[in-house]
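pinned: reference chain
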Amino acid sequence: MRIVSLIPSATEILFAVGAGDDVVGVTFECDHPPAARERRVVSTSAMPEGLTAKEIDDFVATALAAGEDLYRLDSGALAELDADLVVTQDLCAVCAVDVTTVDEALGYLGCRAEVATLDPHTVDDVLACVTEVGRLTGRAERAAEVVASLQARLKAVADRVTGRPRPRALVLEWTDPPFAPGHWIPEMVTRAGGEPALGTAGARSTRITWEDAVGSRPDLVVCAPCGFDLEGSAALAEGVRDRFPGVPVWAVDADSHFARPGPRLVDGVEVLAGILHPEAAPLSGGLSRRV
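pinned: its structure tokens
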């Protein structure tokens, strides 16, 4: 089977279930595991590099309002790779090539590849995606093992935090302007032994004001800006800290452990548990930072 992955989380799932050798095409963002970097890149960003958080938000808002694509699909590369399976998403226009664009490109090229669309909104949905990718690639047994391992780790976190006070945690999916979290992130907070100060599990993230953020009375703030690693998140968190005097502000590797709906979301739950309950769930070394 020849597989093209058009979203980093799908790439991670494909490698996790043992289908990495079958992956022939990826996006420019697919960097985990490192072997994914060795595959041909078929999707790149239309966004200029070096933008600030505010400039990124402005660029995205303007492009979406104009109906413009945020990603460029290399149709030539897609045709040359002659894929049997293309894995994409229909969750967020900011995260990957729109599934309609993929279907149109394949139709134009005359490719007969099966298109699998992942659309997770919760942690359980993400685990179900692992199962589905295992089925599609003939690795159902390995996928079941991966899911069982992830579920065991989630249960271990739940066991450690059960019965403890539940701090109010404000997770910011963006900082300029601020965004309250959505999809699986509020649930991650709950599973880690906290209460989401803002955000609805399974729903979309939402733009808020700083008055909303401060008024949510968080016991702590976690900066998890979509697409930013720990260093980038920490830099943005510096600008958030002064808005919450006396409230601990943390930065996390959002790109690896929060934004991508793949196996490493469980790492994110473990990181949050360490922030919320360090006495019960020790901090994961190097995966978070208080600013």
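why pinned: The longest strand covers residues 40-45. The chain has eleven helices and 14 strands.
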